[in-house]
Specification:
heterodimer; A: Amidase signature (AS) enzymes; 8-stranded mixed beta sheet; 3-stranded mixed beta sheet; 16 helices; 11 strands; globular; B: Arc Repressor Mutant, subunit A; 18% strand
């Protein structure tokens, strides 16, 4: 029975459809695996009954001869940034501890409608702010991976660290993630799995706790490109409740998958060859080029001249939006309220927010408040928006020369938990390759390439044209087939 | 320029006034959520997840609110911006669930426009005056705090949270309380014509922030202004200006300086007091709302908005004077309120049809009836009057009978009184109660012959040049006819007989 946990989305879906096993057997297997993996701290709450109910519904539908949904019988992990009806939704913060929404996010609802079940709510960096999953109020998430010959707990990446850890550890076949400046791609790279952030607007943001509205985008994390294609298809779609939602049909990405890249041009941006990037990462990039060439693509050098300004611009725009988005956590209507005896409204705000937000969240609220302040707005926020437009223009110009861009996902492999605790700037640098695509709203994916000399996974990033998730997935598939990355972390939990 | 002046110790001061009017948009749903906007509902019964700013909730613009703002802009002859954008105004308060108000600072939907206030000598407005309007933007209203529900806690009612407001910002073009009052009344009238705001100031559908400064007569530079918030009647707006202008003159003349500050109006005392000074002013950290795309208006949409505009107050008043031949006074009275002209135009149409004359021929009669005769009767009856009986049909019937000479003006009132009290068809009432004039020349002639025969001496005197005696003969005839004779017919026959 434990073998079932080795299966991914496609294998489970097809197996349930074929009757090779029941959805209930799958759900039970994963529920057990989740229960046995408390040491990873990947879940904030588990919801085994939700997974079982969805499984039973899938089994019954099959018995009744009904058509099964795209995710029928597949139990998944749900990042705890998605509001789930009646199930605690915290964004990994104390300020929302105990909050049970009376509504379901559009993306999670789409997944349930497609037949998926929920294993639980996955841990993350608090309010999705972090790159190592060390800012959660509910404790760090450990990666299932360890450096060869050591027992030090490694970072699963962030902010979707619970998602990456769970999928890499085979306690969930797939999980939802959200990506504001790399929060799907970086953890996927750190843990040897796949993750795609679609074009901004593909997945509804309705019911997703907001970090930075103009950047936040949900996407799937799974162990294969096919699984990502299937799950993204189930998550995406126009939502009239989100004014920034794309009013476009969802293509059949899975059906159109093709690793044949003949006629495609792959751009290699020279500005991504940055100082401080591990040699192993640069080597993997070279390997990636060879693989894509082998798949029939033409490799072309391109330039994205404003790349180095992207990260600073991101760390102005995202905190600015966050400082406003997080104003609603004030102790008035829901969540934590810290009201000292005899205190007034201002005291309540101060006490509640001081107690409810973690340090990283406070840091970003302060940065965001500062850059929007009178007298600083033009120098910071407005300037950052201009940079953002230039970064987007870099990509637009690049599309004249190539169809998809290949780059590393991260400048380094995973690092031990705690090692960057006191160095937020180095931590922010983790997202240096991920942020430009976020600022431009482009689809971008990380696929596992290889292990480094420490036995830690390295990922490669593919960035596509707006709405062209297909080429991103296709190139990902080409790499997947050639990398044949079938490494799994050794179970220690 | 008005002649309003504050006479100070050091000379005469003039007042400069600008108004920011917040008008609640008439729409069944809020600006960014589907929740209802009805007034007076149970606290927190009209609150969507968006209005309560639950985690992950997103605003989606309500097209109807946008449409109303555009129509309002067109009604004040303003430039409509085809590209506008929503900004967040960030501040913390318990009645503001999001921690920011969605508004439009940088790119409002409506640009510069204007309206005209009419000359009113009595109020010191010597001639018509154009008041500039800087902009109109749309924004969310906040909720309401209730401090009287609990000894130590304040309660929050979010029913109003997220309701759409238009903020209509005037230029500092007004120079007296009367002008400001006329501006608010005119704006209210336009809003109500357009149907974009119900103009109900008591319910808070319309309220004004009043900006006042003073300067020596003839001075070029503007004085420091104060802003008095949330003033909710025309009378209060005028009071605020009166009080503020005098207060500022006192401050300046006693060597002080006016602080640029936000003030509150105290209805009970008619005074204003400091709410917060400039030092305490919020830094609102405005920035474009990333949850919303820029608002782009298509040409078709704009054309539909324009086509849906009704005849506006100025145009209607002119038409009443020029085409219907009404006096300027009547035209102004009838066009001031939507309900008034609505009732008038219906009655005019029905009456003209009944009489079989063009509207212009009966308009004066109908206008006098609507503005003076009918209200007089209603007022006289007090609570006995059942206005439901006062249908256009019934009133038009009375007016038609009067037009044909079947009833006198007095009889018209009597019949209308019965209609108001008991209902019924005016013609039947006139017949049953004998409330009709006699126009039968035979009967009148017989009565006149008898009177002339019995008063030979007076006939001689009249013929001898004593013209005044004509009134005596009319009186005698009317008396003989028990007051029911048609005076015109009586006059005519008497003239014929007396040569």
């Amino acid at each position: 029975m434990t073998e079932l946990t080795k299966l991914g989305v496609k294998a489970i879906r097809d197996g349930v459809r074929a009757g090779d096993f029941t959805a209930r057997e799958v759900a039970e297997s994963f529920n057990s695996a989740v229960a046995a993996a408390a040491e990873l701290n990947a879940f904030i709450v588990t919801t085994p009954d939700h997974a079982l109910a969805a499984a039973d519904a899938a089994d019954k539908a099959r018995a009744d001869g009904k058509k099964l949904g795209a995710m029928a019988g597949v139990p998944i992990g749900m990042k705890d940034l998605f509001a789930t009806h009646g199930v605690q939704t915290t964004a990994a913060s104390h300020i929302l501890e105990g909050f049970e929404p009376q509504y379901e996010s559009t993306v999670s609802q789409n997944l349930w409608d497609a037949g998926a079940g929920m294993l639980g709510k996955l841990n993350l960096d608090q309010f999705a702010m972090g790159s190592s999953n060390e800012t959660s109020y509910f404790g760090n998430v450990a990666s299932p991976w360890r450096k060869d010959g050591t027992n030090a707990a490694m970072s699963p990446g962030g902010s979707s660290g619970g998602s990456s850890s769970a999928v890499a550890a085979r306690i969930a076949p797939a999980a939802t993630g959200t990506d504001t400046g790399g929060s799907i791609r970086q953890p996927a790279a750190f843990t040897g799995i796949c993750g795609i952030k679609p074009t901004y607007g593909r997945c509804s943001r309705w019911g997703v706790v907001a970090f930075a509205s103009s950047l936040d985008q949900a996407g799937p994390m799974a162990r294969s490109v096919e699984d990502c294609a299937i799950m993204l298809g189930a998550m995406a779609g126009f939502d009239p409740k989100d004014a920034t939602s794309l009013q476009m049909d969802v293509p059949d990405w899975e059906g159109a998958l093709s690793a044949d890249l003949k006629g495609k041009k792959v751009g290699i941006p020279k500005e991504y060859r940055m100082e401080g990037t591990d040699q192993a990462i640069l080597d993997s990039w070279e390997q990636g080029k060879a693989w894509l060439k082998d798949a029939g693509a033409e490799i072309v050098d391109i330039s994205l001249p404003h790349t180095k300004y992207a990260l600073p611009a991101y760390y102005i725009i995202a905190p600015a939006e966050a400082s406003s988005n997080l104003a609603r956590y004030d102790g008035v209507r829901y969540g934590l309220r810290d009201l000292p005896e005899g205190a007034g409204l201002q005291d309540m705000y101060a006490e509640t927010r001081a107690a409810g937000f973690g340090d990283e969240v406070k840091r970003r609220i302060l940065i965001g408040t500062y850059v929007l302040s009178a007298g600083f707005y033009d120098a910071y926020y407005n300037q950052a928006q201009k940079v953002r437009a230039l970064v987007a223009r870099d990509f637009e110009q690049a599309w004249a020369e190539c169809d998809v861009i290949l780059a590393p996902t991260t400048p380094t492999a995973s690092f031990p938990l705690g090692s960057l605790e006191d160095d937020p700037l180095t931590m922010y640098l983790n997202d240096v390759f991920a942020v430009p695509a976020s600022l431009a709203g482009l689809p971008a994916m990380s696929v596992p390439a290889m292990l480094n000399s420490d036995g830690l996974p390295l990922g490669l990033q593919l960035v596509g044209k707006p709405f062209d998730e297909q080429t991103v997935l296709d190139a990902g598939l080409a790499i997947q087939q050639r990398a044949a990355f079938d490494h799994a972390p050794e179970k220690w939990w | 320029m008005s002649n309003y002046r504050i006479q100070g110790q050091t000379g005469d001061w003039e007042v400069v006034i600008g108004l920011e009017v917040h008008a609640q948009v008439t729409s069944s749903a809020k600006l960014f959520s589907g929740a209802s906007t009805a007034f007076g509902a149970e606290p927190n019964s009209q609150v969507s997840l968006v209005d309560a700013a639950m985690p992950g909730m997103l605003p989606v613009p309500n097209r109807e609110c946008i449409r109303q703002a555009v129509r309002t802009g067109m009604a004040i002859e303003a430039e409509i911006h085809k590209w506008s954008r929503f900004d967040r105004k960030n501040y913390f308060y318990a009645d503001l669930p999001q921690g920011y108000q969605i508004s439009q600072l940088y790119h409002p939907i409506v640009g510069e426009g204007q309206l005209t206030i009419e000359a009113d000598d009595k109020s010191g407005i010597p001639e018509d005056k154009v008041i500039g309007i800087e902009r109109i933007h749309v924004e969310q209203d906040a909720g309401k705090l209730m401090h009287d529900q609990h000894p130590t806690m304040s309660y929050v009612d979010l029913n109003r949270s997220g309701v759409a407001l238009m903020e209509i910002v005037s230029k500092p073009d007004m120079t007296s309380p009367a002008e400001a009052g006329a501006y608010v009344r005119k704006l209210r009238s336009i809003l109500r014509y357009v149907g974009s705001c119900d103009g109900n100031m008591e319910e808070g559908s319309m309220r004004a922030d009043v900006n006042v400064s003073v300067r020596k007569v003839g001075a070029e530079e503007l004085g420091t202004r104060t802003e008095t918030k949330n003033v909710n009647s025309v009378r209060f707006v005028m009071q605020v200006i009166e009080y503020e202008a005098n207060r500022q003159v006192d401050v300046l003349e006693s060597g002080g300086t006016v602080d640029q500050e936000t003030r509150l109006f105290d209805v009970a005392t008619g005074t204003t007091r400091t709410m917060r000074s400039k030092e305490d002013a919020h830094d609102y950290r405005y920035f474009p709302d990333p949850d919303l795309l820029p608002l782009v208006l298509e040409d078709d949409f704009l054309a539909d908005c324009r086509a849906s505009l009704p005849e506006l107050p100025d145009a209607k008043r002119t038409r009443y004077e020029q085409e219907l031949g009404l006096t300027p006074y009547n035209a102004r009275e009838l066009t001031a309120e939507v309900e008034t002209f609505g009732r008038f135009e219906t009655l005019l149409a029905v009456t003209a049809a009944k009489i079989g004359k063009p509207e212009a021929k009966v308009a004066t009669q109908v206008a006098n009836w609507a503005l003076s005769v009918a209200p007089g009767v209603v007022k006289g009856l007090g609570e006995e009057a059942n206005l439901a009986n006062s249908t256009p049909e019934a009133q038009a019937t009375i007016l038609a009978m009067q037009d044909k000479g079947e009833i006198s003006g007095g009889q018209a009132k009597e019949i209308y009184e019965i209609v108001l009290r008991e209902g019924g068809d005016p013609e039947t009432i006139a017949d049953e109660k004998g409330l009709k004039q006699v126009s039968d020349t035979g009967a009148i002639e017989a009565a006149i012959d008898e009177i002339l025969a019995n008063n030979q001496d007076k006939v001689e005197q009249y013929k001898g040049g004593k013209d005044k005696l004509f009134g005596f003969f009319v009186g005698q005839t009317m008396k003989a006819m028990q007051g029911k004779a048609n005076p015109a017919v009586v006059n005519q026959i008497l003239k014929d007989k007396l040569g």
